[in-house]
Amino acid sequence: MQKVYFDHNATTAIDRKVLDVMMPYLEMQQGNPTSQHSFGRHARTAIEEAREQVALAIHAHPTEVIFTSGGTEANNMIVHGAAIKKPQSTLVRSNIEHPCVARPMEALAQQGWHQDLIKVNHEGMISKDTYQVIQSNNIGLVSVMLANNETGAIQDMSLLHEFAKENETLSHTDAVQAFGKIEVRFDELHIDAMTLSSHKVYGPQGVGALVLNKRSDIEPLIYGGGQEKNLRSGTENIAAIVGFGKACELISESMKRTSDLTHQLQTKLEHHLKAMGAVIFSENVKRLSNTTFFAFKDIEGSTLITALDKKGFAIASGSACSSVNKEPSHVLLAMGVDEDLARGALRVSFGNQNTLDDVSSFIETLKKELQTLKQLTAIAA
Ligand code: PLP
């Protein structure tokens, strides 16, 4: 059976070129990057080269890149790190943030901090007016994601910058989904901190970065031997960091090609989905060209996912990290989508190996599965 992977917002396969540069660091005797001997110096050089590759891809300075174990850790690091510096301050975020921004803020709200939410409209976007609803004079951090992992909607970062400036607070964006799909320039966003993850851009899992400008002073999340400028202690995962660096280097070569391809796939898919009566969320706003989040009225999303999986198509029902959670997507509820419709939501996220033929066979299979489900529902009714 043909297998088609349409879940690239959850994770991507390691690029062969990335794996090739990682292998020597997995196969041979490595030095600890803090050791003074030649093995240690070799490992240190590899990490600093990767830091330069990451920095170059986002137009940041290498000293602004702090390697972490991934996007989740980087998001926790900025939330905790900023909060500890400003006890009892207000932590502000949008109401569609990934759980790894939302949960740490909720936990801190139980421990003396306050939390305030910026609300999105029915298309999943934040406007200038909704920023202005936030009225606190002691904000420790404001965090708004660049592109949403479920809808793909892209926020206007100039509004985040303006809000942070007016409120004299640290600003952060989770760019995990935007990076590699649209151009992300840290130097032009005027945001203090930004999160990246390697496994969304054809790099290995378990590595990412918090990009932090020099003006920002945060407390570490993990204390120890003082690695990563004292901000993230622990012996570095050299092979993963080297792989992440290579994946970043490849982005500049491949991004235009991949986004042209995913745009074609998305146009074709959405044309057919609409003809079949699907609702496409955030359809009319600036959106990632690889992401389509949709639902059919009266169709259970998880049942359809299982049926499609049996036919070889891997798609998601919203955030991969909460796929065990049967609750409707918090992003759709924040957009005011009806609970029943939200429960049926399905996400297709394309990547660089997908083809127009994959989309054609997906549509044919989807049509058949929908028909079967509708017949079963009619019998049960
Ligand atoms: N932020 C967003 C928007 C994500 O989509 C994800 C992963 O799905 C993360 C953060 C977490 O990144 P990681 O898997 O590297 O911990």
Q: Please count the helical segments.
A: 12
Radius of gyration computed on alpha carbons: 21 Å
Total number of strands: 12
Overall domain count: 2
Summarize the biggest pleated sheet.
7 strands, mixed
Mean pLDDT rating:
95
Write down the secondary-structure element order.
EHHEHEHEHEHEHEEHEEHEHHEH
Strand content: 5-15%
Poorly predicted ranges:
319-323
The hetero molecules present are:
pyridoxal-5'-phosphate
At the fold tier of CATH, the topology name of the largest domain is: Aspartate Aminotransferase, domain 2
CATH superfamily of the largest domain: Type I PLP-dependent aspartate aminotransferase-like (Major domain)
Shape: globular
What is the helical fraction, as a range of percent? Answer: 40-55%
Q: Name the CATH architecture of the largest domain.
A: 3-Layer(aba) Sandwich
Strand neighbour order, sheet with most strands = 2-8-7-6-5-3-4
Helix and strand content put the structural class at alpha/beta
Reading off the top of the CATH hierarchy, the class of the largest domain is best stated as: Alpha Beta
For the terminal residues, how far apart are their CA atoms? 33 Å
